[in-house]
Amino acid sequence: MLNKIEGSSYIDLLCSGIKNLDRHRSVLNDLNVFPVPDGDTGTNMVMTLKYGYESIKNQNASLAEISKRFSSAAVYGARGNSGVIVSQFFKGISEVLEGVEEADSQVFSQALDNGCKYAYASVANPVEGTMLTVIKDASTAVIESLPLKDIQEVVDTFLLKARTSLENTPELLPILKKAGVVDSGGSGIVYFFEGVQKYLKGEAIEEKEEETVSEYIDLSRFNKDTVFEYGYCVEGLLQLKIETEEFNISSFTSALTQIGESVVTSLEGDKVKLHVHVKALAPLMEQCQKYGELLTVKIDNMTVQNLQRDGESKEEQRFLYDKQRDSADFSVIAVASNSKMQKMLFEMGADVVILSEIAPSSQDFLDAFNYASSDKILVFPNSSNSILSAKQASKLYKDAKVVVLNSRSLAECYASLSVMDYEGGLECAAEMSNQTISDIYQLSIYRAARDRTFGRKRILQNDFFALSNNQILDVGITLEDVTLRAVKGALEKSEYCVLTLFYGKSTAPETVEWLKEKIMGFGYEIEVATVSTFETIYDLTVTFE
């Protein structure tokens, strides 16, 4: 029986929840509404919470400090919509636990309720029938059941209602009911708290085995004659030794900009999280030690990193950018899921292109903002699942005005970059891009990764289906038939001038050229273009402009 939560027990509680969530990661990933091979809710939630856990494991600190450190790291490591929401849930919990040495059932219940408020606030237009509803129903049940005798009773009450709420999500969200599934993010909340419940009952959870591969660095590329060109990248957590009222974060940040570049700081209670690029370490350490001591510090030699990059193919760079490129009034950040498209978007004018097969974290976007070295930034997340993490990063970043576009696909980014006006300024470019995105009608052709019934439509594994705006337009056994029927249906409904076929890795160029000829043979006055994207999720995306 646990009557109160303190620092060490909170770490154990989180560890058990994350372990159980990780063990069900693939189950969550498979809970896609549509049978497309891009299920990543489980992966995003696990990676977000593990990023937070890395900041507290093996730590000996108060509950308030552990909670704050975990939530802050989770915010930076948040991936995908589910990751952002769950990171904000824990941020709300940490706010209530601030200054608390031990949390009893009353305080913990209030913390869960405040976490719910933060989770809802993280989404501009909350949708019921999602993980938000599960969190809300569960936390409300806890508050309404007070007083509760101990922490386990709080968790039992939360979990009981969470399961009921999860089962009800298809009644609130028609798209779930059509697909015959429950919400994947809500399922993640249930799995996490099932892990917490196991911890409170003394039941161990076997950790999922993982293959860890250390990044190889060819140190032979750096020797005594190498020019130390790029300096060090330093990240750290500074514990203030003075009263926070006496500390001015703006003055501290300004002092760091006199020492180095790409400065990012954030004040979390009596600790400062910092990131800076410097040529010499001593002045930075001296500046930090005027106010306190570094609890953690990570130092990377950027010259070694750049020499390593030079020895690799440019196509394999995590962030593709060029410091020597002439800059416009603003910088453009884009996301690509493979190196071929990363290079293409860079050549089209994007200043920094993030290479990420899964949704980039908020920290990934922050790193990209630093590489942009601009005080005005336009961001193309290029996935509906990356918009929230990009927006969360924009709120964390203080050195530039950041505008995040609602670009949901590579095709929308491609069309926007094709007509980008770099002379008119950030606001003009954002307005034009938004207009371009809203004017595009697009549909995608997928090969089904599993059997799924969606409403009255039955899709079998390896069938092809056309999807647009969460509507299945057509299902068939060949890519060609499904594509031609879906395209013809779109052309019959509206007039378009340009049609572009973005074809993925599994679609042969000969097939695309054949489709192009057939579409042009429909008799519509329309220009048809083709673009190879090397995507693995979809076989074909068609845009109409």
Kindly describe this structure:
It is built from 20 helices and 17 strands. With 545 residues, it is an alpha+beta fold. A 6-stranded mixed sheet has the order 14-13-10-17-15-16, covered by helices on one side. Strands 5-7-6-8-9 form a 5-stranded mixed sheet, with helices on both faces. Helix 1 packs across helix 10 and helix 7 packs across helix 8. It is globular, with a radius of gyration of 25 Å.
Topology, pairings included?
Layout: H1 7-23, H2 25-29, H3 41-54, H4 63-77, H5 80-97, H6 105-121, H7 131-145, H8 151-172, H9 174-179, H10 184-200, E1 232-240, H11 249-259, E2 261-268, E3 271-278, H12 281-289, E4 292-301, H13 302-311, E5 319-321, E6 331-336, H14 339-347, E7 352-355, H15 362-372, E8 376-380, H16 387-396, E9 401-404, H17 410-418, H18 426-439, E10 441-447, E11 452-454, E12 457-459, E13 464-468, E14 471-476, H19 479-493, E15 498-503, H20 509-520, E16 527-532, E17 540-544
Parallel strand pairs: 6-7, 6-8, 8-9, 15-16
Antiparallel strand pairs: 1-3, 1-4, 2-3, 5-7, 10-13, 10-17, 11-12, 13-14, 15-17
Helix pairs in contact: 1-3, 1-4, 1-10, 3-4, 3-5, 4-5, 5-6, 5-16, 6-7, 7-8, 7-10, 8-10, 15-16, 17-18, 19-20
Any key phrases for this structure?
545 residues; alpha+beta; 6-stranded mixed beta sheet; 20 helices; globular
State the secondary-structure class: alpha+beta
Oligomer: single chain
Estimate the mean pLDDT confidence: 91
Sheet with the most strands? 6 strands, mixed
- Note the beta-strand portion: 15-25%
Low-confidence stretches: 211-216
The number of helical segments is 20
